[in-house]
Amino acid sequence: MASAATGEAIASVDGQFQRHLDVGTERLAAGDLEGAKDALRKAAARPPRDVAALGLLGQACYRAGLYDEAAEAYGRLVDENPAEVSGRVNLGLAWMKGGHHPEAVRQFSIALDLDPDHRKAMGYLGLALLESGDPRAARPWLEKSGSGTLLARCNALLAEKPTPIPSATPAPGPVPVPVAVPLAVAPRTPVAPGGLGAFAAERTVRPPPEVFAVEGGILHVAVRGELVCRIDGLFAVRGAVTAHPESKRFRGKVTEKPFGSGRDRMNRMVGDGALFFRTGGWVFTVVDLAGDAGYFREESVFALEEAVLFENGRVPSRHSRDLDLVHLRGRGRMLLRTAAAPVAIEVSGAETLRVPPTALVGWTGAVAPRIGLLAGPDGVVASAPSPTSPVMVELTGDGRVFVDPDAAPAD
After folding, report:
1. CB 88 within 8 A of CB 107
2. Per-residue CA distances from 6 to 13, 20, 44, 273 (Å)
């Protein structure tokens, strides 16, 4: 009888953890950082028993900037499997982002003991040493990892103020960190030192470890097997990657209708490599579905991991062109492309939310859409389109609607 009660208590704790984690992940995707932090802190206070859940908790806390909580989750993960290199690297990253460089150096060093050829661990170890004020120790690791930009920064620090050779009795106090001279105070136009090789190294772009990432005004998409992605803005492809035009799917069947058109058509990217896109002023948002489902305006969806299942649909309209939608579900990530970071607006009860079609990003929950016209000054909905009665998407039910606040109005 006691064991049954204990089992119920454990199930209750696990259930509460999962609810807090789901809320935190959802609010993080919606841009509610404070709400996400509050929910994720509650999740971190209820340690899960499942190793996969620990990984999800660590990832969500890291993305929310809760680096101490992320380190705690990844630390439990490492305790469960001390020989897992990726867990060590993630733990080191959490420590480093939280400003705990000695702990980060230790974890990256252990990761390299386990896998001496782990290039990412080499680069992160070099960065942790560099940020802790030891560029001389950082240099060989940055050189081994091939991190050209960081290596150039390290070389500049070493050239500007050489690290002193420690004496038998070290002086007390923190190690001084060299400070780079701002470019503005240079007496003449700077010349890139070290020849063409150094010039190229400083401008080398390398995809981050994530599948989708924006860095320095460039969108990186890593292809590891298959994913679905548009090619608008694509300026380089590295590795063995081929593109195959994707078709729409209705009721579980592949159709002959193209999923998008022209360079904005979805393509199934197959192989092993990386895609490089110019952002072109767009805002790209990574959303982890984590088993949830939602509907999104087709134009807002830029890329999907292979684990994300999709099916196309549309909302018919008498007042404008039909609204093309895509239903997404699964345990993968998607990439949204919008003019501004999407915001979420709650819909509940009999209230109707009206959104211009171009501003609608998507929704989650039991929400029903239809195309209508905005009411005129007298409160009566106009019977025909006119400048005073713009076309709107009317959404009712219970859920949250994602809206692009900077979306350009339709012509």
Report:
1. yes
2. 11, 21, 21, 49
Predicted TM-score of the model (pTM): 0.53
Chain-wide mean pLDDT for the chain?
80
Enclosing domain of residue 153: 2-161
CB 271 within 8 A of CB 375: no
| Domains in the chain, number | 2
Query: Are residues 248 and 135 part of one domain?
Result: no
Q: How far apart are CA 120 and CA 150, in angstroms?
A: 13
State both tokens at 106: 């230790």
pLDDT in tens, 324-347: 999 999 989 999 999 999 999 999
Could you tell me if 54 and 76 are in contact, meaning their C-beta atoms sit under 8 angstroms apart? yes
CA distances, 378 to each of 37, 205, 374, 389 (Å): 44, 57, 11, 12
Give the largest Cα separation in the chain, rounded. 89
**404: its two tokens:** 């692009």
Q: Are the CB atoms for 45 and 37 separated by under 8 Å? A: no
Report, in angstroms and rounded to the nearest whole number, the Rg of the chain calculated over CA atoms.
Answer: 25
Under 8 Å CB-to-CB from 385, ≥6 apart: which residues? 319, 320, 373, 391
The answer on 23 and 116 residing in a single domain is: yes
SS3 313: strand
Q: Is 283 helix (H, G, I), strand (E, B) or coil?
A: strand
C-alpha atoms less than 13 angstroms from C-alpha of 347 in its C-beta half-sphere: 24
Residue 185 in domain: no
Q: Identify each DSSP E strand in 113-216 by its residue range.
A: 212-215
